Amino acid sequence: MPPGELARPQIEARMDGVLHRHATETDRIEAFLPSPCVQNHAAFLALLPGGALACAWFGGTMEGKSDISIWLSRLAPCASRWSPAERLSHAPDRSEQNPVLWVAPGGEVWLFHTSQPGGRQDECEIHVRRSPDGMRFGPVQRLGDFRGVFVRQPPILGPGGEWILPGFRCVTPPEGRWTGGLDTAVTLVSRDQGASWAAVEVPGSLGAVHMNPVPGSVPMPAFYRDRFAQAVRRSLSTDGGLTWGPADPVDLPNNNSSIQVVRLADGRLALVGNPTNALMSDQRRASLYDEIEEGDAGGPMGTAVWGVPRAPLVLALSADGGGTFPLRRSLEQGSGYCLSNNSEEGLNKEYSYPSILQGPDGALHIAYTYHRRAIKYLRLDAPPA
């Protein structure tokens, strides 16, 4: 086991939410979030209107199973411990995944997440719960009548006040099951504060998913995970996010795992992800859900690449709008083994699905999957110029 990497019993012993300063990196504070679940994945951070930091994720026994639900923990201002996990979704026959927290204009907190039968992402729906303060959430509602559209990143505001929710279509090949090789990016646009939504396709986005627009410049960039495990991809918008150019690769490798990007107060972009791709490893698996589904996982057109190790986890900085990311800091080192989603037996070793934001004091807040057993939280001092 690489130095610093924790075994499953050690992780479980530390899942108390208590903040600790790192032994050698003096600008780093960390914690493992409390959770009653065997598997915890897909963290998402947001600052709530009252100043608390919230982290949502999905948890249960294994991704795709019907006991996977959305969970939430909060870190109050000046607190030294994350709150106990609160379950926010309860569908007994669906796997509920990829939570997104967003503070809408006016301060209302929206929770978006996907809901699907088993491993069928191509049959998922988007569900929504709303809260005045991020503490008490209203009933579950379905967002539009979209089917097979997944979300992962937060909405942005368009030039006319439009709400633009990035997503991607989970497309099934003519033969076989969904495996991701035909997925394309899409934005869902609302011009009536979330009452109704229309889909706008992103051209040239085959295999580009988890679209992450980053406002604050013209043109505006958006960044993508690459289903073909080659490189992080980027597209540009010159009209405030209403339409987009094609998703082209940048100089940062990607392993078909999630990234997240934010614009810092100094204008630079900060990205967290795994700078690894299919050329660096021969590890492969049939599909994301091959442990819970029987039979042929894919058809002749299913060319997505799964199983490339999800490590190291790196913070990368760009001063040219995301064309290059020359400054990189390692956050976790390890094997990144992800040929199994099994966290109960400690088989999975990935560091993945990061979320990042910058607080009012300039500090960076990062949360991510640790071996699919826990969500780990880091607070880093503001990066030097």
TrEMBL record:
SUPFAM superfamilies: Sialidases. Keywords: Hydrolase. InterPro entries: Sialidase (IPR011040), Sialidase_sf (IPR036278). Residues 51-366 form the Sialidase domain. The keyword NADP does not apply. The keyword Chaperone does not apply. Coiled coil: none annotated. GO terms for molecular function: hydrolase activity. It comes from the Bacteria. This is Glycosyl hydrolase. It comes from Stagnihabitans tardus.
